[in-house]
Amino acid sequence: MMKNKSHMTVLFVLVLLVGFSYIYYDSELLESRELYLKSLYEGLSSEEKFIPNEIKDVVVLTSLDDGENLNGIPDSVLQYVSETASIKFEEPSRLLIWKLKNYLMRMALIEGLNDSEILALYCYFIPYEKGYGILNSAKYHYRKNLNELTLDEIIGLLVIARSPSGYSPESEPDRYQNMKKVLMTKYSINKEIVKKDQ
């Protein structure tokens, strides 16, 4: 019985390696996704494209997982953008195939867009109670443009983006405030770490 499980594990790993190799070397599949991501970015308004540095910093510093080094875009941001773009690009399929296709979208994202463009797409995709986009959320909640937001307001929008119904400031004010404290603490700690590393 144990022998069969180990054979199945080896077989599963081989299938994954073959799948990833196929995807990696199929430049047509990669190119089509790169073109799609670039067209998504080009379709953004100028306000949606040019995210203020303070918002970029807050997104990055609150998205870092414990122990994750700050060298580019955090893994959770890359994962969110690639998964959201994959869903928009094509219908989800069987789990293994879907994971392979999502991996391909992630590769296209890393190879085809720079950090600022990836963060712009992230900010465009994140949800709020009435739809999507940090710009729309800022206008809905604070009647402000992105460059007018305070640190507290930026953190608030990122809290809402985690679960618009679960962290709504209107219907779940206690949960909203508690998560704001969590993200503000995470932001402050990671900001200090970055300062020490520079």
Question: Can you describe what's shown?
Answer:
The chain is mostly helical. It has one domain: Penicillin binding protein transpeptidase fold, CATH 1.10.3810.10. 73% of the residues lie in helices and 2% in strands. It has helices spanning 2-25, 27-42, 46-49, 53-63, 75-89, 95-112, 115-125, 134-142, 151-162, 173-197, and strands at 127-128, 131-132. α2 (27-42) crosses α6. The longest helix is centred in the last third of the chain and has 25 residues, at 173-197. It is globular. The mean pLDDT is 86.
CATH superfamily: Biosynthetic peptidoglycan transglycosylase-like
* C-alpha geometry: globular
Structural class: mainly alpha
Q: Can you count the helices?
A: 10
Euclidean distance between termini CA atoms: 54 Å
- Series of secondary-structure elements, N-terminal to C-terminal: HHHHHHHEEHHH
Mean pLDDT: 86
Radius of gyration: 19 Å
The helix fraction, in percent, is over 70%
Beta-strand level of the residues, as a percent range?
under 5%
What composes the largest sheet?
A: 2 strands, antiparallel
Kindly identify the CATH topology. Penicillin binding protein transpeptidase fold
Q: Tell me which CATH architecture applies here.
A: Orthogonal Bundle
Number of strands: 2
Q: What is the C-level CATH assignment? A: Mainly Alpha
Domain module count:
1
Taking strands numbered 1, 2, ... along the chain, how are they ordered across the largest sheet? 1-2
Unreliable segments of 5+ consecutive residues: none
